[in-house]
Write a structure and sequence with these properties.
With 104 residues, this protein is mainly α. It has one domain. 98% of the residues lie in helices and 0% in strands. It has one helix and no strands.
């Protein structure tokens, strides 16, 4: 049994050494990873601010386009109303002229 324990000791020692080396390597990468995460967070914040600014600009552009459309629609309505008023005035004039010819 002692020989069997001695036979297992060598591979276990090698495995332990490998794991200790990997642990040390990983310890060295933690600060690098943290700095990288911080850099990524700062970049994400910067992009978020840019998106916010772009959103405001696009909202202003959409509002301007909507206002332009509302003005164009109001002008169309005004032109239609003016045309109807002109037609009504012409019809009223014809009625008055017919009345004057008939009754005077």
């Amino acid at each position: 049994m002692l020989s069997s324990v001695k036979e297992m000791k060598e591979p276990l020692s090698q495995n332990l050494e490998t794991l200790q080396n990997e642990l040390q390597n990983n310890r060295d990468t933690i600060p690098v990873s943290q700095r990288h995460a911080t850099t990524l967070k700062m970049e994400a914040d910067r992009l978020d601010r840019m998106l916010g600014e772009t959103r405001i600009v696009s909202e202003n552009a959409v509002a301007a386009g909507t206002a332009y459309q509302n003005i164009a629609d109001a002008l169309d309505d005004a032109m239609n109303s003016a045309e109807k008023a002109k037609n009504n005035a012409e019809n009223a004039t014809l009625i008055v002229i017919k009345y004057l010819k008939c009754c005077i």
